[in-house]
Amino acid sequence: MRTFVLGMAVVLGLSVTPTFAGQGSDRTRAAQQALKDKGFDPGPIDGIDGPKTDAAVRQYQEKNDLAVDGRLNDQVLDSLGLHGKTAGGHFDKAGNAVSTDYSKGGHDIKTGAKKLSKDVKTKEIGNAPVDFGKNVGKGAAKIGKGTGKAAVDTVKGVKEAVTPK
Fold this sequence. Notes:
This protein has helices at 2-23, 26-37, 51-63, 74-79, 87-121, 128-162. The chain is an all-alpha fold.
């Protein structure tokens, strides 16, 4: 039952996210307005994190001794007097969890495949299939971990998006 609920939350979150993105994020809109108020031109206040917004964020980060990456992360939002604890913030966290952990998992699988390939080419099979299996297992575990984090943050984002304020 728990797996079904988490799966449905992920599906709902992924289906709702494009709707929010198409309309522009309230969080991004608030950040654009705060940047504009502080003298950094983010372009139109439309809630869309485009190139002008990224450039304004970079300028703001440089001016305020923050890590310069052009992203509207929690550090930037806090510095602007906004807080990233919004539905959009949770969806961002979900995406980051998937991106980071899937990359780590894929790296483990790739490492195992390279070792196996090398051993097959040199005809020194030995433990290569076992090692490959272990790396696939490690990679899948990391991917599962990222999916779990994403599901939790997606549920939080959906809940905040549909809960009246």
